[in-house]
Each structure stands twice: as structure tokens, then as C-alpha cells.
Write the C-alpha cells for this entry.
Amino acid sequence: MSALARSLLLLVVIALVAIAPTRSRAQTDPLSSLASTNYDEIRRGVEALAVSGDPRSASIIAALQDGRLFVRPDKALFIKGDSGFVAADTGVSASDVTADALRPVRVNNAVRRAIDSALGSLRLFSPEPATRSIAAEAVFKARDASAVPALDRALAQEKDPAVARVMRQARAAAVLTTLDAREADRIAAIRILRERGDIDARSMLASLSGQPPAVATAAASAIAAIDRNLRLWEFAQDAYYGLSLGSVLLLAAIGLAITFGVMGVINMAHGELVMLGAYTTYVVQETIRGHWPGLFGASLFIAVPLAFLVAGLAGMAIERGLIRFLYGRPLETLLATFGLSLLLQQAVRSIFGASNRQVGTPDWMSGAMQLGGLTLTYNRLTIIVFALVVLFALMAALRYTPLGLRMRAVTQNRRMAAAMGIRTPWIDALTFGLGSGVAGMAGVALSQIDNVSPNLGQGYIIDSFMVVVFGGVGNLWGTALGALTLGVTNKFLEPIAGAVLGKIVVLCLLILFIQRRPRGMFPLKGRAVEA
Amino acid sequence: MSARITCIALVLVLGGALLLALGNLATAEQSALHASPYVISLAGKYLCYAILALAVDLVWGFAGILSLGHAAFFALGGYAMGMYLMREIGARGVYGNPVLPDFMVFLNWKTLPWYWHGFNIPGFALLMVVLVPGVLALVFGYLAFRSRVTGVYLSIITQALTYALLLAFFRNDMGFGGNNGMTDFKDMFGLPLQLDRTRDVLMLASAVALSLCLLLARFVVHSRFGKVLIAVRDSESRTRFLGYRPENYKLVVFVLSAVMAGIGGALYVPQVGIINPSEFAPANSIEAVIWVAVGGRGTLVGAVLGAVLVNLGKTYFTGALPELWLFALGALFVLVTLFLPRGIMGLLPVRAEMPLPRAPAPAQAAASEAGPEGVAGADFGR
């Protein structure tokens, strides 16, 4: 309540006292105050009732707010309920009372304010911790000085430490707005707000004015501390967004790291394999919606292996039908696969239509969790985890499975591998299929955060190539680190330079980086490099 | 032999352009020989595309640099011309501001950005048409060739270059009209662009520019310089060991090619009447490469032929069977690279301008000897 309103109120009180000198001001019973016709008296009655600890006070004040509180000429109070009147002080049904004998207790704005704040204070004593917490937060936001006594009593009996903390913060906010609070109390309050450390606490501290020097210094240093704190959270949030973008890039690029990085095949249709994965998700979800709606939560788990199969088979078909004729001619491979990407896009457009397809998000992936000042959305979190799982699964598959062994043998020394009886053309097809299948799985993840349209893949192809080239060809760790670096750099540049300019800066940095280190962050060493 | 082919091509380009212009001006509208303004601007567009294709062939066919960002130079030349045409509108714009183009008035800008000054002078604008793509190519090429970025790596960073420019030109505060680009041009060097005669002149100018570029390119590849260039294309490290500096040769031809592309773009803009950031789209650059592949890489004349033929096909398909155009274009990419590695010119019974090294026949490539080029020594997850 502002100082102006206070002084106005004081004037009103003085005027009323002057007009009605006979009326006693020191009412001890809050209920008899409510029965008064003097608004000021009623207001004081509400305030007294709020701190009285009477279990009936909440319902009485609520009745007053709704205009259901009535007074009999003998000053007995009654609440009008659905089934007649009940006595306000006892809660006993009063069937003998009729509406003719009663007049409603009237309220003015000052009383209404008192009612609001009283109800707020009363909620502080609710048996539900959540309600108490919300009530304390409301007091915090309202900076209501008159709530201090109620908060003190609530604090005394509060068991839940989390709720108690919010109450202490609310009390601190209230103390700071109290005109006659002692300096030491104010400084203690500022310390509590500083611990809270969010934007609300900061604006509350910033709005303080006309404070004694010691308090002002404490407030200024608290604001500085909160700013530092907020910057830290903002930094963490940017890092999270960056990780999220990086994991998306990693998913899109990791298949390319196999086909381009290991086999040296420029597959411009890689993005379209990602798109196939996304459309597989769409088809799976449509089928589930039509036949087994209960399975919807598991739709992504069904879609992942299917997308791997669809894209993997498509990839093997591409390798057998097109790319194997162009080995040793990388530029021609690039053109042919670009043509293929146009064909695939148009095919999908003809089958599914040019517009975006709706892919749903299962319940367990929607929503977000709050971690300090961080908001972590579940779908992004899932994608980060998924990207890492795919990365490690792929590494394990290449290292520990017989197929992975053969793949490594063929890429390291093709003729020797062939001499050992490995059917190298078949391994080429399988390697390409593996890379393509991983692209398909990426499509499942991207369907959750991007529009599923025939152009889905196009947006990722340049970024994916950048990631692979940046990380160093033929090195999955490099790809992972490259993707995360690019993602985080991008997101840190965004607040400074804006989204589009940030992306341009990243592209330019990359172009410059490739000039410095044409073989990426982790180039392969040895004579093979110059081959 | 190849000189004769070039002569035939020149006669066809210049003669065809003249005939079309005559058909537009000298015949009545009902005449069977009449060329409508639509046909004239279409022909002009094809000629500009042919200049771009020629530029791509010069670097790809003769220096082995597969640039996937050549449309960026084309678009930059176009923007330089577009800026001149915007200034030329003067006070006739919607907002009637004598200095600021409409989109700047719309964005509430008060003064002309510094880089817009001088574009009201035709000579300066023409200089910029050549300089802007040239300087960009010089800087980019210097950095790329000096650090020996070659092959597909170079292709990918040229693509990143045009992609970055695409994003940049989409921004409103770049001062190039953002998403909408520049349009509503009124006249050029005092000639109203809506007039048939202006269109004919522009189309003829494109034909002349194409002919000059063709002659220049032919001169370059047949010179001593061109011989070294072809050596670089066929074996860069061997050329280096012989004492040449491949990066310098590549840089010169890259800049020359970028300037050519810029001139093509500058002629293109007044004929289509608009320039916007979509010209920077990576797909455009790749499409230019396929024109060259269809016509025949490393043949110069083939590039011109390919550009005209593919675009004729595009005009027909997008008009008659829009669904099928991407199928046709995609199939063209695949079939040409698989079955027509020398393009249409390879079918003619003449020697190519500078024959490419023999490409391995498909049957050979499929043999176990030639697997994926691979990165020998790659070790996963180390």
C-alpha cells in the first residue's frame, strides 16, 4: 500500500472519529467490529479476524467478500448459505432467522483490500503445502506490508522447509515496504532476496528508493549479485540450447560420417534419407492411430527400428543401383546423388502431398522440467540422449561386431581385405546401408522438432557436411565434437548477433577454419591422408 | 574441328538473336514469324543462363574446380544491376522518395546506406557488376586455393558460401530489400524496360555478351595458360612438382569465371524484372552445373547448348507437367552422370575442346579393384 493511500486513509479515519466521537475505537472482538456500520471499523475487524487464528475466520471473511454476511440489530452475525442462515461465530444453523430482520454488512474499497489481503494471509495456514506456497508467493508479489504478522505466525508453525523459504522471502519483501522497519531488518530482508536471486527479486530491489545509505549499499550489491547469478543461468540455458542443436546436428551428420567420412562417398541425398525416416514415423503414427490407439506412447520406439530399416534398405539400393558405378569419381557422385535427392523429394511430394504432415509427440516427451533457473524441455532432452545413444551404439557396432570388423578392414586396406575372403562389394553396400539407416533414425528424432515436409532433408544437408568436414573425416569422435561445438557456438552467437547473422558468422568461421585446417579438427595422420 | 563448332555456335547465337529481334519488331502480331515479348525475354533469360553455364564450365571443365556456388556470383552481378535500376526509378516509386528506394522508405530509413552511393551513375554500377563478384572470388579463391582445399571439400565450402549469402540477403537490415528483393524497375540508361525495343536490345546485348565470353573462354583455354590449367585439372600435384603454382592459375580462372557469371546476372535482372535472395539458393548453383554436364563438360559450346536445352525443358515441363519437372531434372542428373559422362557434345563425331581424362567405364568401376575411394586408414572411434 502506497504512502499516499495510507495518509488518505488516516485522514478518513480522523474525519470519522471527529464525526462520531461516541463510537469506541478499541473493539476487542473482531466480530462485533464487523457488525459495525463504520467502514473503518469493519476493516479493522477483518484485519483482526485474519490474525485471530479462529478456524471460522476464513469462511466469515469469504462470506463478507461475497456479500453473504448479514447482521441482526442485536449485532449477531449470520452467513447466508445454500440452506438458510448459519451463525457466524459458531457455525450452528439458525433456522429461526429470516432475511427481513437482517441487513447485509457493506464494504467499501478499503475493506475490500483488507479482505483480499486477509484471505491471502489465511491461505498461509491452509493444510495444503502447495496452497501455502502459492499464498506466500502471492504475498511476495504483492509486497503487502500488513501481511508481516500473519507471515510471522505462519513461519512459526511451518514444517515444510521449501514453503518456509518462500514465506521468509515474502516476509522480506513485505518488510522492505514497511515504512518503519529497522535498518538491520531491512538489510536482513535484502540478504534473503539476494538468495532468491531471480528477476522478481531483482526488480523488487531495484524499485527501492529513499533508503538509508547502508541499506542502499546492501541493495546495490545484492542487485549485482543477482545479475551475476542470472547471467550464469542464462549462460547455462544457452549452453543447453546449444547442446540440443548440437545433438540434432550430430544425429543428422552421424550417418554422413559413415558414408562420406569413411567411404568417401558424397551423398547429397543424405537429407532425403533423413526425410524418409521422418515420414516413416508419420506412417507408423497414422497406423497406430487407426488401429491401436493405446500404443501411441510407444510409437517412436516402433518407428526407430522401422525407420532404420526403410532408410537402410533405400541406402543399399542407392549404393547398388547408382553409387557403385561412380566410385573414384566423387564429383559425378555428388551430381548423381543430388539428382536422386530431387527424385526422392518429388516422389514423397507426390505420395504424401507438399504440405507438412502432422507428427504427434507422445505424452512422456511433452512438458518441461525446471532445474534452478533452467527450463529443460523433455523432447529436446530426449533427443540429446538419443543422439548420444546412437553415437555410442554405432561406435560399439563398428568396434565389436563382425560386420564392423569387416567394414574397418575394407576401408583400411581394400585389396588385403579382399584377399582375406571378405566380399568387399557386399561390405560397401552394408556400410552405406548402415550410414543411411542411421540417417533414418535421425529422421524419427527430427520429426519431433521440425516440420515433416518433403524439404525436411534439404535444411540439414549443408550443416551435416559442415559438421563432418569440421570434425575431421573418418572420425566419429570428431563428428560428435564438431556437431556439439557448432551447435553451442551457434546458440551463443544468437543473442549477440541474432539468429540469421549468427548462422552466417558460423558459416564464415567454418569456411575460414577449413582454410586453416583443410582436414578438420582431428585429421587422420599418416601417408594415407594425401592419397 | 573445334574452331568450326565454336563458329557454328556463334552464328547460331547471334543469328538466332537477330532473327528473334526482327521477328518481334518487323512482323505483324498475327504473322507466323512474330516473336512475342514473352519469347524475347525467355530467349534473353536463356542467354544469361548460358553465360553462367560457360562460367561454370571454365572452372569445372578446365580447372577441375566444381563450384557449387557460382549462382552467388551471378546473383551478386544481378544485385549490382538491380541497385542501379532501383536508383533509376527515382521519384517514380510508390512513396515518391527521390533518393531512397521504396523498401527503405517502408523500413523507415532516413538516409541512403553508404554502399548504395554511386549506383545512380550507370558507369559505376557496371563497374560494380564486374568488381563485386570478382573481388569476392579473389578473396575466397585466394584463401581456398592457397590452403589447398580441393575436390569435394571445395565444392562444399562454395556451397556454404552461397548459403551464407542467401541467409544474409534475406535480412531486411542488410539494405538489399530482404525477402522481396528489388523489383518494379522502370527504365535502364533512359530506355523504358516495358518497351519491346528495349527488350530486344537487352536480348541482343546478352547474345553479344555470350559470344564475347565464349570467344574469351576459348582464347583462355587454348593459350599457354589454358594448357597449364588443364594440367592442374588432370594432376594438380604433378603440375606443382613441375614447378608451376597451381593455386595462381586456379585463382585467375576462378576470378575470370566469377566476373563472367556476374555479367550474366547483370543482364538477367533487367530482363526478368526482379532480383531476390532466392537466386542464391544452393540448388540454383547445382542446376547450373547440370547444364554443363548435360551439354558436355570441358567443351564450352556444350555448356551453352546444355543451358539452353535444359531450360527449354524446364519451361516446357513447369508449364505443361509441373509435377514431373523435378522427376525429369533428377533423372537427368542421374542418367547423364551414369551414361553420358561427356554430355551431348560427346555424342557428336568431333574432338572435344580439351578432352577430359578417360573416365572409367561403369563395368570397370564395378570390379573389385575400384571400391569407394574411401579414406584409407580410417579407424572408427579411436
Q: What stands out?
A: Chain A touches chain B through 75 residues (CB under 8 Å). DSSP finds 21 helices and six strands in chain A. The first helix of chain A runs from residue 3 to 19.
